[in-house]
Write a structure and sequence with these properties.
binds zinc ion; about 80 residues; about 30% strand; 3-stranded antiparallel β-sheet
């Protein structure tokens, strides 16, 4: 269900497992994650928010305003979009 390579541990840099998510606002979710590294096992809460649009929604909400990325080949998208 969740992309299990979404977030890295701030302490050891290993990937974390997503344990649960909670929608705070339409543009902010809290994600509880745990580090996969058995020597670390850091568990923490992170926030995820959209920062820019790459492809516009086909069902846009009037109260959501995200900046539009320039292009996939432009300077904004280089190195990981
Ligand atoms: Zn860790």
């Amino acid at each position: 269900m969740y992309n299990q390579r979404l977030i890295r541990c701030p302490h050891c840099g290993s990937y974390c497992n997503v344990l649960k998510t909670r929608l705070i606002t339409p543009v902010c979710s809290e994600v509880t994650v745990q580090c996969r590294n058995v020597d670390c096992l850091h568990r923490y809460v992170a926030q995820i928010s959209p920062v820019r649009t790459l492809v516009p929604s086909q069902r846009p909400r009037g109260d959501i305003h995200l900046p539009q990325a320039r292009t996939l080949s432009g300077p904004v998208a280089k190195g990981g979009v």
